[in-house]
Amino acid sequence: MGAMDALISPVRSLQRAARAVRCLPFRRAFYATLAERPLDAEALAAEAAAALRFGPLSPQRAEDHLLWLIRLGVLRREVDGQGLTRRVRLTPMGRQLLQQMPAEVARAGPLRRLQGFWCRHRPRLP
After folding, report:
1. What is the C-alpha to C-alpha distance for residues 14 and 117, in angstroms, rounded to an integer?
2. CATH code of the domain occupying 3-121
């Protein structure tokens, strides 16, 4: 990997994460909350967390979204004295993404959400 690749990779990763975030059902408040304290999927799906998401969300679906954000590098599992926990926090890239967001996450249109679905659920073809 050359010096130019080392400079481009973080930018591409951030751009990819920014595109993916627009396809997820989370409000900016969700990312701001994770910058301050950890959350788990059950807490995110609870009725009290409705201000953090656009519409209802089951705990399993919330966990799927959290795993996707972990794969993108936006979130990480929190670690305690006994190992990894079910809670997640923002990574440094997630904090950078949060700083770039305006007042609210701009929601992706139907075509972009479909493209995001394929990127997320279908393996790359050779």
Report:
1. 18
2. 1.10.10
